[in-house]
Amino acid sequence: MRAKEHGFRQPAEWSRHAAVWTAWPHLADEWAEGLDGPRAALAQMIAAIVDRGPSGPRGERVELLCASPALEADARAHLGAAAGGVRFHRAHYGDVWLRDTGPIFVTRGHERAAACFHWNGWGGKYLMPGDASVSTWVAGAAGVPAWDQGFVLEGGAVEVDGEGTVLTTKQCLLGGARNPDVDQAAATRLLEDALGVDQVIWLDRGLVNDHTDGHIDTLARFVAPGVVVAMTPTGDDPNREALDGIIADLRAAKDARGRALEVVTVPSPGLVQDATGAIMPASYMNFYIGNSTVVVPTYRAANDDAAVAAIAALFPDRRTVGVDCYPILVGGGGFHCTTQQEPAP
């Protein structure tokens, strides 16, 4: 079942959420520097999203998948008081990347459904037990119908404005590793039907060493209808050419309502390397927009404070919190990659 033919649409991320889905890290082989760092970082992200105040949580409920009772106990210990804003689920899943393995929720008025896509491990790179089925599992746990879309797509590959426009990249969707027989025209129709959009804006490529092959949530994000934020390269940025091209393409694009996009820029993290000296795909665009809080990833980089402040200015009605994301990035992604919002009915 497709969203568009039934009047459903993926809402913008700043729309009201009933909850956000994420998962507790547990596969040791996925974390080159161990599990302690990513678990501590994810706990900080969850606490920021829950936004516990004197009278209780002010943000949104967190739905946390845990693969065993021991993992739930570990999560509770890390979360402390923030656990009061979390609902724990026993589930079978690969690891934390619910943005990509989970469903994309679509809405029609107060009705909700889950668009569930096929999964092939980011083009066959990482196939972890449970990831192919977690999308429909989350839909069932959320109490909404699961609609099989019949093609491969990860949630981090698409970014919507809630008014009919989606951003994506040619590198990811047209690279041949996911849907090898689908050309740009066919991919456009699939996205329009599955997400309920009218206009697809195609950017070119993503960051160096990004195993997702150019997910849009590391490159450019809508922050309001007609307004998109992207990064300007700084210093010894290994992504200078790609980032300059993204800004140029966005400034030349129009959305579904015919508006030229307003492009706001923030500085990039520049060169961020792991313990072996390898370039990592660090991006401030991998922020999560919660009901009360915007969580911005930081990387122990010189531009961290400037980027957090610039993104905070885009969300004056929410608090903005910078959280050290380096331990999550070691596993291949960022905070947005670990989350999938469930819209409020």
Main attributes of the structure:
345 residues, alpha/beta, 4-stranded mixed sheet, 3-stranded mixed sheet, 10 helices, 25% helix
The class by helix and strand makeup works out as: alpha/beta
User: What kind of sheet is the major sheet?
Assistant: 4 strands, mixed
Oligomer: single chain
- Report the end-to-end length measured between terminal Cα atoms: 20 Å
What overall geometry do the principal axes of the alpha carbons give?
globular
Fraction of residues in H or I helices: 10-25%
Poorly predicted runs of 5 or more residues: none
Q: What gyration radius follows from the Cα positions, in whole Å?
A: 18 Å
Mean pLDDT: 97
Give an overview of the whole structure.
The protein has 345 residues and is an alpha/beta fold. Helices cover 25% and strands 26% of the residues. The longest helix has 15 residues, at 36-50. It is globular, with a radius of gyration of 18 Å.
